[in-house]
Every structure is written in structure tokens, then in C-alpha cells.
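Predict the structure of Mannose-1-phosphate guanylyltransferase.
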Amino acid sequence: MSSTGLFASALAEHANGSATAPAAPAAPPSVVESMLAQILESVQRQSHELAELRQECTELRMTNHSLERQVREGIQGYSNGHRTGTPGFMTPAIPGSPQLRAKSPFLSTPTQIIPTLTTTHHASPLGDNSLVVHPHPHRDIPGFYVVIPAGGAGTRLWPLSREDHPKFLLDLTLKGRSLIQATWDRLLPLTSPARTTIVAGPSHIKDIREQLPDLLPHNLMCEPGPKDSMAAIGLAAAVLARRDPDAVIGSFAADHMISGDDAFLSAVAEAVEVARKDYLVTIGIAPSHPSTGFGYVRLGDKVDIAEAPNARLVSSFKEKPDARTAAAYIATGKYRWNAGMFVTKASFLLQLLKEYKPEIHQGLMKIADTWDDEARKQKVLDEVWPTLEKIPIDNAVAEPAAAEGRVAVVPATFGWDDVGDFSSLADLLPAEANQPRILGDSNLVLTEQMAGGIVVPGSGRLITCLGVDDLVIVDMPDTLLVTTRARSQEVKRLVKKCRDAGWRNLL
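Done. Here is the predicted structure for Mannose-1-phosphate guanylyltransferase.
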């Protein structure tokens, strides 16, 4: 209440009281003035305190926003024209795998120089136990097989990605390597081309062969149609278990970006040690912000395995939360992002599948029985594959197994992003302060009073922007997308509209 209101209220009470009570001697003017001065002083003091609180809240919001942006962007600074720090998203080329550029009309000229990216993530507190980098002097892990599910409809980064050329085939950082090539490079130190398997759809087989010439033909498995991750990973497990009954497999998506290769390789090696003890093991990513776009894993008790000092049981899996719930998860220090990375013995995964999804298990085993018989394989695939349930591995086996204490997690601190939309992609690209990110030839983009956002000049023509902020502009030879970063997760709705309107040739 204002000082005037308080004074008026006091006068009103005085007036009401005077109607029923004997008249009292009037207060001297000096007393009234003193009371009024005290009221005014109290109101002014409270107003000043409120202003200070508002200022503190504003400063905290600005600081939090700045820190979150620094963590998510992870842009390593430059000093006197020289890079400072360590390479981040750059993955070294492996000898024998030539630096092939992804075969795609959506990539700009290879002469474009993009600064090295790096992301710093801080581990959530884990009680009295801090994360340690477990030493593994020998990178190669005998008996460890890498499985790379390479699927996707190209809807979340449309029109940059398409059905026949999804994001894992694209070089989204202009480093000269596509996402699947970077995934291959990153994992090869732990295994070998002979122990690296890729599961993909028919329309992607040719491009994968061209981008990964060291991939052995019998390790490229073609699934007749998309059935989600359980069928794809289960197929690889069933075939690999026949080739090596003791095989430990690790499933890693073809289209994720990772920074901090040493921390990544150490976490995978630790997960292998846990998997050998008959666990389904996932790798939990340290959250950098309360994301509503990822699932979460709740950390349980420690797993008593000397070779895996950081491993814990998975208490539960959580679906994508709202912002308030995600913030509460992070505040506890007991949650990690679920990046969909799973390590386990192939035989153990098939055992879980037999218990929780016997129909899928039966179908995959029938396919695996004929896998090395080319004459019979295709017939059985065409017969059995369409009958398999379309379900993610998380829902099929991970969640029910976690309830029985059969799922473990290795908390890790490397940088990770699934590049789920144009807003995420923008966070991975460098830019000057308050300027848009540009994926492609920066000479084709001219802006004036434009802050934030991302521009993809894929058509070769000039793009000019005036007085607009946080836009997503993707200019391809055959179509143009304009939206905002805030709505970038809804791009797949436009893809559906294009399909319904008869523009399937653009999908």
C-alpha cells in the first residue's frame, strides 16, 4: 500500500473510532508529522528492498542464461589468431579411411574453415564418489563388437536432410566427415572394421558403402523397413551371437555428436567390464541444462565391480519431462540424460528379449538362422520382418529389466548432442556475438540488425536479412524453410503437410 493509502487508512480508523468513543485530545501537530514520517520511511525502505531483490533476480537470470549458453555452445576461444584449448567435436581420421565428403547436395564448399568446437560438461554430484577416468592402457577391447543403427526419416532437419539422405550422412560441422563417418572414427580404436556392424534401410546402403569403404560387406545389415531400435539392435545381436557366443556389443547411434573422445572411450570400456557380469549397461550423460527433449536415467546404488569404479544400478528410466521436472531432476544430482547408448553381451540381450518380448525374439532368431544362406535369407526376412513389433529398446527390455536390478549405468562427462533440431544445430556452430550461425558459405549471407538464429545458404543464391532475430532459414535448391528457433522442433509437422499436399518428391 502507498504512503498516501496508509495515511488515509489511519485517518479513517481515527474517524470511525471517534464516532463511538469519547473525544480525545487532539494530537499535537508534531506527533502526526512524526507518525507520517515513520510511515513514509517504512514504505521507502520496503520499496528499496524490493528493488534490490528485483535487481538480484534479473542479474541471476542473466548470469544463468549466459552460463547455459556458454555450456551449450561450447565454443573454444581464439587468442591472437591461434586456437586455445583442445579439439572437441573434431574426430581424427583413422588410417585406411580416406577423408571422404558426404555425397550430398546439401553440403557447402569444403574450403570453408570452421573453428574447432568443444563442449565442457560438469558432472552432477554423486554423493561422496566423484567420477574418475578409469585407465585402459590398451584401447582395443577383445570380443567387443560395435553396432551402429543408422536410420531416420530426415524430418527433424528438413529440408537440409531428406528421407534418402538423413542427417547421419551429412557433414553438419563442415569438417569433411559426415556424422556416421565421425561415429566410425570415434569407435574404431576400441574395435576393428571386422567387429563393426551397421544396420540400415535399403535406401541408405549405397551411400554408407561409399562413405565407409573399410566396412566389410557382411557387416552391413539391411533391414527391410523401419522397426525402431529394438528390432535393429536385436537383429545384430542375434547374428553376432552366432558368430561369437561371447560377443559383447555396444550400440551407438550414427547421428550423434560427441566431444571429449578420451572420456567417451573410457566410459565405453568401463561399460564393457560391467556388461561382462550380465548387465544391460547404458551410458548416462551429465546434463548441461534442464532439457525437455531427452529422457533421463535415475542413478541407483553402486555396482561392486573393481574394473568399473563409476558404475551404478539404474533406479529407473524417466520419459521426457516438463521444464520444472527436468530442473528438479538436475538439482538432485542423481539423474543423467539417456543418450540411447547400450552395452551388453549379445546373449544376455537375447535372453532379456526372450523374457520380455518373446515374439520379437522368436522372429529375430528365425532370421538369424538363415543369415548366412543368401538363398533363404531374403525370403525369411520378407516373411518375418513385417510381423515384428515396432518398439524402442528402452521400452522393450531396458525399463522392465531395470525394475529387476539388471540394468546399470556408467555416468560420463563427455559432451553429447543428438542434433535433434535446427536450434540444437545452431548451438554447435560458431558465430560472432549476437550474430546468426551460418552452415555453409558465409559470403552468401548478409545481415543487418539480426541476432541469433541459423542460416543455411544451400541454393547458392544470396540471402539478406534485416531486423529479424532467432530465425531458422534453410534455403535449398528446391524449397525454402523459414521458422523460428523456438518452433524448430515442430518442423516435422511441415513434412507431414508436404506429404499430404502431394509434395512427396521434396521429402
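Residues 431-506 form one domain.
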